[in-house]
Write a structure and sequence with these properties.
alpha+beta, elongated, WH_DNA-bd_sf
Length: 103
């Protein structure tokens, strides 16, 4: 969800769509899950309410990353990058045949 907010503020439904797009459709958040997570991220001060508006008689809130949220997303990106590098290293080792050459 932090990634979905990294480039622009978004309202709830737009976050759902963005998460689906980012994950190639592999992740489909339910509305209840989304708003529970948004409340948690607000409490942790990783996101903030960017603005509110009334649309079709209903309140629509748009959310944006805070500086702390950007830092956390950056740290997670580095952690994932390190995990990816280790996976690639191990896969390369798995290509070695018993005589020490590579396949």
């Amino acid at each position: 969800m932090l990634t979905a907010l990294a480039d622009a503020p978004r309202h709830g439904y737009a976050i759902l769509q963005e998460v689906r797009a980012i994950t190639g459709g592999r992740t489909r958040l339910l509305t209840g899950t989304l708003y529970t997570a948004l409340d948690r991220l607000l409490q942790q001060e990783l996101i903030r309410i960017d603005h509110e508006e009334i649309v079709d008689g209903r309140l629509r809130r748009s959310f944006a990353l805070t500086e702390q949220g950007r830092e956390v997303l950056g740290q997670e990106t580095e952690r994932l990058r390190a995990s990816l590098a280790e996976a690639e290293r191990r896969l390369a080792l798995g290509r070695t045949v018993p005589d020490g050459s590579t396949a």
